[in-house]
């Protein structure tokens, strides 16, 4: 579980937010609140078992000393093991307030409940070789492990594994989520992510994806007002049909498949419009009632595909580029897309993203750079899906059903997005990503992509 709609901040932003608070309130009071939140959360899982609290040298360790003191005062059997002496003034003070014995991490005996206060946002390098195996053993031997702020051994801003063990049950994020709670190795290593308000106001344009608020069609609605979606068919017609089906089930009023031939399956309500080449498509896309065009799923990469793509790029219509369209654009995506006036959405998976962009850094930074370079909203897919807009707004979806890792689900996302775009939803990308993930959850295990659109109406009904 990841809290929906929760702000996400980097280590530096969190520090800045903390420092702003310390100008009007003693740091020790804030740390008392953080430690109290940890103690409260840990107490829910203790059930009378002995607790081992691990304390590192920094303020994460400071929180650990507070939590240990409060748990002990509440009558629990608590032992502390530290990796060394407390190294910050606040941690030293909290160590003094603990007043009891502090064992060494290296001699610590496992206990059923473990609280990890070794490192939080201050971890700057891989866990030292001595620490990593001892910590991993204590986690493995515990029935329940609660990590303070972050599991020790995760890089805060990227979620990179710097020696973090497996098996952490829950992580209590302090004040705000950090990228590591929703990206990379953090996805698997944080366990349940809980968020504690510790009285530090944070401002962020980055949040986790939350359930959208959608509206049912008004009494005067007609098929065009609901949104007209055009999906361009290419070499692999099945992919375009999946997108078209998703657009229909995702709420579009009218969906047209721009196709090379008349034949082919698909729902009866799907309208086919024959187009031979790029010129034909360019003519067709002068129809002003079109609310969104999808091109890329199963498009192919030959001359015809290139012609179709150029026609779509040249149309003054909202455009969703997926699959082969992204690969065809490759590194020239920025040059092509900056010329467009109408809005553009890109839905690359990791491989397509790499073919298009040079950027490095964590997934959020890379996706923001791509959005800025292309002036498009970028939905960078994967187990952690990062949405970034050119204005710097970020939404992250973590922990969607891993059964989505099957061919064709990306086509379904492109169609779902088209329906939201065509209906005029200003937050189309976030809504589509939520609906897609919810449809997958409703579909249960081992679904095929064809089955996914059928669950979109139920997902939509939960947003009305
Ligand atoms: N500033 C504050 O008063 C507050 C801080 N909070 C807590 O403080 C944490 C951040 O505290 P800090 O900035 O002190 O950082 P940490 O406590 O996360 O760790 C920093 C310390 O670890 C050492 N270190 C870093 N990487 C290491 C490695 N690989 N091996 C061994 N040692 C390593 C550093 O030299 C430094 O001594 C947050 O995650 C949160 O838990 C909360 O209590 C809220 C208030
Ligand atoms: N392990 C996973 N956990 C959650 N979501 C996943 C996982 N793997 C893939 N997905 C999602 O499934 C979809 C796959 O899209 P894509 O790779 O484009 O597939 P295709 O091209 O076959 O349609 C994306 O929405 C992606 O975010
Ligand atoms: K920790």
From TrEMBL:
Keyword set, alphabetical order: ATP-binding, Isomerase, Kinase, Lyase, Metal-binding, Multifunctional enzyme, NAD, NADP, Nucleotide-binding, Potassium, Transferase
GO biological process, one term: nicotinamide nucleotide metabolic process
Keyword Flavoprotein appears in the UniProt entry: no
EC number: 4.2.1.136, 5.1.99.6
UniProt binding sites for K(+): 60, 116, 152
Binding-site positions, AMP: 381-385, 410
Cofactor(s), names only, from the UniProt record: K(+); Mg(2+)
An MF annotation (GO) of this entry: kinase activity
Pfam families: Carb_kinase, YjeF_N
Annotated YjeF N-terminal domain residues: 14-206
Function (record text): Bifunctional enzyme that catalyzes the epimerization of the S- and R-forms of NAD(P)HX and the dehydration of the S-form of NAD(P)HX at the expense of ADP, which is converted to AMP. This allows the repair of both epimers of NAD(P)HX, a damaged form of NAD(P)H that is a result of enzymatic or heat-dependent hydration.
Entry's family note: In the C-terminal section; belongs to the NnrD/CARKD family.
Protein name: Bifunctional NAD(P)H-hydrate repair enzyme
């Amino acid at each position: 579980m990841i809290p929906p709609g929760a702000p996400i901040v980097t280590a530096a932003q969190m520090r800045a937010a903390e420092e702003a608070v310390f100008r009007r309130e003693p740091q020790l009071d804030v740390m008392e609140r953080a430690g109290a939140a940890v103690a409260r959360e840990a107490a829910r899982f203790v059930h009378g078992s002995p607790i081992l609290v691990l304390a590192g040298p920094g303020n994460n360790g400071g929180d650990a000393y507070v939590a240990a003191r409060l748990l002990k005062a509440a009558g629990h059997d608590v032992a502390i093991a530290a990796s060394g002496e407390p190294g910050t003034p606040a941690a030293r003070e909290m160590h003094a307030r603990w007043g009891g014995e502090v064992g060494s991490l290296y001699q610590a005996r496992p206990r059923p409940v473990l609280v990890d206060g070794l490192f939080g946002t201050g971890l700057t390098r891989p866990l030292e070789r001595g620490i990593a195996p001892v910590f991993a053993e204590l986690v493995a031997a515990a029935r329940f492990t609660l990590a303070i702020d972050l599991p020790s051994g995760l890089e805060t801003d990227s979620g990179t594994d710097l020696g973090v063990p497996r098996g952490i049950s829950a992580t209590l994020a302090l004040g705000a989520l950090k990228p590591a709670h929703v990206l990379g190795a953090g996805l698997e290593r944080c366990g349940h992510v809980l968020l504690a308000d510790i009285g530090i106001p944070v401002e962020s344009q980055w949040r986790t994806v939350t359930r959208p608020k959608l509206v049912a069609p008004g009494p005067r609605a007609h098929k065009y007002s609901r949104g007209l979606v055009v999906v361009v068919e290419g070499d692999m017609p099945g992919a375009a049909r999946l997108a078209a089906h998703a657009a229909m089930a995702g709420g579009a009023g009218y969906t047209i498949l721009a196709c090379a031939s008349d034949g082919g399956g698909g729902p009866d309500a799907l309208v086919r419009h024959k187009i031979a080449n790029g010129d034909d498509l360019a003519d067709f896309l002068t129809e002003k009632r079109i609310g969104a065009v999808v091109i890329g799923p199963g498009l192919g990469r030959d001359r015809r595909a290139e012609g179709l793509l150029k026609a779509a790029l040249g149309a003054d219509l909202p455009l969703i580029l997926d699959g082969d369209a992204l690969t065809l654009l490759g590194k020239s995506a920025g040059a092509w897309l900056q010329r467009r006036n109408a809005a553009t959405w890109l839905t690359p998976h990791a491989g397509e993203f790499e073919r298009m962009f040079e950027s490095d850094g964590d997934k959020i930074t890379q996706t923001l750079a791509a959005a800025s370079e292309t002036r498009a909203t970028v939905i960078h897919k994967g187990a952690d899906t990062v949405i970034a807009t050119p204005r710097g707004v970020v939404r992250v979806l973590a922990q969607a059903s891993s059964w989505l890792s099957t061919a064709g689900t990306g086509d379904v996302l492109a169609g779902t997005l088209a329906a939201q775009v065509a209906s005029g939803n200003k937050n189309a990308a976030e809504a589509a990503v939520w609906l897609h993930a919810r449809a997958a959850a409703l579909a249960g295990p081992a679904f095929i992509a064809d089955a996914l659109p059928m669950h979109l109406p139920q997902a939509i009904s939960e947003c009305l």
